[in-house]
Amino acid sequence: RAVQPRLAESSSPSSSPLSEDAIKSKLASIKRTRKRPSGLGSAPAPAPPPAAPPPEAVAPAAAEPAREAEAVDDGPPPMERLQAVVAGRTEFSAPLDAPTAAAIATFLNEELGDAMLGWVLAHTELGKQAGGKNLWSRGAWVPQTARLESLDGSVLRFSVGVQERGKQGLTTLQAELPLPRAAATADELRHALLSLLGEEGALPASAGAVLLRLPGSTDDWSLPDELWLNTTPYPRSVRNMFYEDVLQAMQAAVADPSCPRAMKVTVTPPELNMEMDSYRVGSLLELVRECALGFAETGLKTRVCVQGPMGGGVPRVLSGVNKLLTLMDWDAGAGEAHAGMLGDVQLPKPEDGSAQREGLVCFGAVGEDQVGPRDDVVIVLAPQSMVGSSIYELLRPMVERCEAQGTAVILINPELDDVLSSSGVMGVRGRSERIAFAAAFEEVYHFRNVYSGTTFMFPILGSVRMTRRGGAKRVLYRRREVGSTSSVTNREGGGSERYEPVGCWVGREPTPREITELVPKQVSGPVGNVVVKPAAAPTEERMPWD
Fold this sequence. Notes:
The chain has 546 residues and is α/β, with parallel strands linked by helices.
């Protein structure tokens, strides 16, 4: 009825209204003319929307979320981003060219001198010759002096003075010592020389500390002054030093494809040593937060796991830690630096009981079922056995699943040794498997203090530090206090404290004999320039439980 008047107006006034068949024919002709394009260069007229669109018509709308996901995933993969972060921190040493090689040879002759004879006797043909000639008559052919004449990236060349029985003076012979691996930089040469130190007694125990200062090499071993680790709570600067040191070691290990996926970290200054009354759970939580966020910032999904009850509850030092992890400030709220990285963990749980959305940082317990298929890094806090319960039964399948899917699992301060039962009996069945499992983890970071005894962990005499990204060098430090003649501590008097390297080893721990020789029980040095620094954390940095 609405169309008939308009069509009638287009006709002559005297014409009669069109019939229904005429109206249909005119409408059909109009549709045909609109549907046909006028030419190649003109755009077709839009067709009227159909009354009932077929299912294919809504298919293009589904492509919109795909474009959003593509925009989110734009950029390099998370592992490549992590490797770029690690590479950006790398410091390069001097190339092993002729001037650097000459400077190193001069340095070794001045600092080590004839002590390098131990290298000659242990690693050259001349050393084997000396052993054969002195087999039946000791002292008949004795090398006495050694001087490094030259070196390159593959060999050290020595001139050796030999005392032969019945001859006056020393006979000078030449000896070549091939390096374990070719070196192109000063750092690579230093690592090769440290590996030549070998077992105890080849060179003086202090030779490793001399090699740390090799000309042209990087300083990746120094510790800052004024740590005062026997005074808790620590200042924020001291805590941040440990957090950053551990994070960089963990990131370098995860980014290295040659590193095993099962790793461990040992960091036990007094605030993180669970065996001491100075243990501070807040420091452990802050350490884990910095490490988890450090991985998440590169796009790696990180799961933080704390063991749950094992029959007799949880260890006292881990009591409430799982709850505190979800309540602490992760700076992940709306508009904050890490917004959205925790997902919905810190939001109220849904009333319908559905699971909360996980973010790049998520939480769990110890067990095989806790590992997600998309997890990139799993951090386990201080796993340890209890009386009557072994963490091995829960941790082993969890680690095996992580390794099977390429997920890095990192244990922080693990205690995987067996615990005596309530009757004082140690379990024997499966003990060899548990010991082998505990030894299978690659240690990527190690820091511990050296004390004068085991009963009273005071004063701190020194420290041992190792980081895998620095060539796995274990550096032994002697703690010295300057500015007072006190034999215990001069912190109250405003003295200055520093850690001096006294030994370094690659591939092994320093023996108790070496530690005793290099770290005396006297920690105070001569009177010098006093640098007054605050020993403990300022009041505004302390937590309620400090």
